[in-house]
Amino acid sequence: MSTSTSAIHSIKHSLKRLKSLNEQLKNAKKIDERLDILNRNLEVQAFLQQNSCLKDFLFCCNAHAQVIIKSLLALGQGPIIFQGMHQHSNPHLAFTQLIESLAPVENFYAMMGGLVGYHCMMLQLIEEKELGKKEDNFLPPAERYSKPPGYDISQETSFVRKAIREAVEKMPLIAEIYPVGGAGDRLRLQDEKTGEDLPSAELLFEGRTLLEGLIRDLQAREYLYYKLTGKYLIVPVAMMTSDEKNNYRHVFDICKRSSWFGRPQDTFDFFKQPLVPVLTKQGNWAVAESMKVIFKPGGHGVIWKLAVEAGVIDRLLKKGYTKALVRQINNPAASTDYGLLAFSGCGILNNQSLGFASCPRLLNTAEGMNVLIEKESNQGYEYCISNIEYPDFVKRNIPEIAEQQGGFYSALPANTNILFIDLMAIKNLVESCPIPGMLINMKHKVTCLTLEGRRQQVYAGRLESLMQNIADGMTTHFLQRQEQLQAKDLDTFVTYNRRRKTISVTKRAFTEGQSFLETPEGCYWDQLQNHYELFTHYCKMQLPEVPNEDKYIQEGPTCITSFHPALGPLYSVIAQKIHGGSLSLNSEMVLEISELILQKVNIKGSLLIYAENIVGHKNAQGIITYSEKVGRCVLKNVYVVNRGINKKLSSSYWKKQIIREESLKITLKGCSEFIAENVTLEGDLEIEVADGERLIAQNREGELTFIREQIRVPRPLFTYFFDKEDKMILEKHLDT
């Protein structure tokens, strides 16, 4: 009998033995009932008879702690978890810590039998995974899968403009939810000083954490709302963290050291996902040492149950928020152009319960896909749009087929984990679908103890779950089979946008010689391509083309562009602020500003514009108030000439580790303005404009001169409004 066959036989035997126990525990509503069931278990009795030390510890424990420990014994895990207990330097402390670490798991998975239910589900999934590899065990599902009907938002059509407007005007209804509890193991992040492993939230992308990037995107949309309505809005943010790699502490510290990003602290809501036990492929718990179980985050599918139980959804509803945009921290591309606004607007226009922001999916990659699921029922047919992860393609009999022969993209679109949700719909569904999309992934090895006390590396995994598969419970019923469903016909929906404007993630560290898909380098490269499209197609600037992947890795970018999202974020808005001009080879343009006019500005070197107040001023408590008290810059027919970036010394562009020989740096303090027209700004210049001051650069008789004035009343450069066709128009003031 092979090792794999032997393990499956053992798992089958364990499942058979534990099935009755699990059902009893699920049905037991009181802790004393659960304890009584476990006390009668023969495995528990036998282990305690042989381990008086553990029996003594349990004598001093309350009922809840006893249920936790006796569940482990009933599962047959006593020998592996409590081995060497007698030789432990501080067994009482280790015992207490074991109970504390398992209590959240017992409580969270109570509806499926607590720790016993968790273990049984793991065994069931391991068995299915192993048997699924054999074709004779494959049973095709009683479902049909096809490409979902969706809203095309890849072009700014009249419908897309209507959706954008709807999202902007209904912004006071849309909260934000960020699952940020991931470990980010493949990024290999470490604190340079302490060597501590860091979670993905700490990844510095373009010189700032990924979390700060999400908040900047949100502030840009809030500022757009202010400019269009004149109203002040701070959208609440709920974040699901975990204790993996001290994730919660790191996320909290990022917020704290960033002074809460100029937002009221009470607009942030944190809730933790439980860390769950890791099991080996043989169905045993992975233990690092005596009474020290190996834990990992249990997947983002727990987010809905946690959000309901922690009161997060109720608090949002109480504040008047009925919808939410859900974003993962590792996808900076999601906020490109109007994508998030059009996506949210589609859901609001037709009052749909859950939406997926989708795009073309790369063939033969580990990306999930969005599908239309059709199920036949006794009353007719049920339909929903949901997600299927790549490990389940074979199980569901879904082939990898190209959309076009010889093409790079799949016939079915990509799941990106950008979601739009109706909060009440989620709350109502959690009871019947508490942990959607449960699965296991046994591809990674862990170092753990054998029964003999030796350390070995074995394949292991934990019970994971998928937040997007809450959609499986949102079906729409029809009496007849539907041949031509429309996007608005279902409770769930999908939007289709261009890939690099929807997803480009920072999941793993780049290794030379391998693809930089899903790496920070690849994400930055995609961003440069988006910027090239913006500045050449929309703004009519001349830029050197973005190099291909190989040339980019060898030589770096041909030019660098970055800007604060409040400059737009819509490309059509930015195009009304920037027009003409050029950016030469190996030059750089950084625009940390929202109020800007660039007309026929030609840059050879580095132009850096930094406004201290980008979207408004700070009040006495340090809270950003959206207002016209911002930095403004107007450059018309200007030449910027300096030596710019030293490419030989610049080590990492995506990290913003850039060395400059010279630059033009314009710093606008508080509410200030810099205006230059028909001049050449040459050499290494640093121009700082004080709060309340206007600095004008002029060419007088061939010489560059500066005139300083006091700003009496700050005036915006533009008035924002929607026209009759729902286009966002920026009307320039006469004196600009």
Notes on the protein architecture:
With 736 residues, the chain is α/β, with parallel strands linked by helices. The protein has three domains: 127 residues, no CATH class; 360 residues, Spore Coat Polysaccharide Biosynthesis Protein SpsA, Chain A; 213 residues, no CATH class. 28% of the residues lie in helices and 24% in strands. It is built from 18 helices and 38 strands. The strands form ten sheets. It has an eight-stranded mixed beta sheet, sandwiched between helices. Strands 23, 24, 26, 30, 32, 33, 35 and 36 form an eight-stranded mixed beta sheet that branches. Helix 1 packs antiparallel against helix 8, helix 3 packs across helix 5 and helix 9 packs across helix 14. It is globular and about 100 Å long.
The best one-word shape is globular
Work out the strand percent: 15-25%
CATH domain class of the largest domain: Alpha Beta
Regions with little confidence, pLDDT below 50 for 5+ residues = 134-140
Cα-to-Cα separation, first versus last residue: 83 Å
Secondary structure tally, helices: 18
